[in-house]
Amino acid sequence: RRFISEGEYVEMTAITKEQSGSYECISSNDISPADVRTVQVTVNYPPVISQARSTGTAVGQRGVLQCEASAVPLADFQWYKEERRLFNGLNGVKIENKGKQSMLIVFNVSEEDYGNYTCVAMNTLGITNASIILY
Length: 135
Hints:
Elements: E1 21-27, E2 35-41, E3 45-53, E4 63-72, E5 76-81, E6 84-86, E7 93-98, E8 101-106, E9 115-123, E10 126-134
């Protein structure tokens, strides 16, 4: 994509996250060689959950629920079982967050662990959630 401006500024209206990236600014005149500078454009946007898969796990086994969200800045994650927030290291669960992915691990699945879980992804621009079932 190319933007041409006679002044020292270029305006990108209705910018989308796909327009993030490196841009070259080239200034030229008839007297001296062109000067080229690279500018990095980052477009911030609220989380969009791209992956939330329900999982079947037998009693006594390890259950893993995964949630993935694209966002800039990166999303923070929270997990809920019904209305109760889950915390890492409590009640036999572990929460691992790496980049745009969060995993909820239930170490020793019991009948009470089956049901609806909610993955919440949030950043300074917004919040979204997805329902994931452990069965």
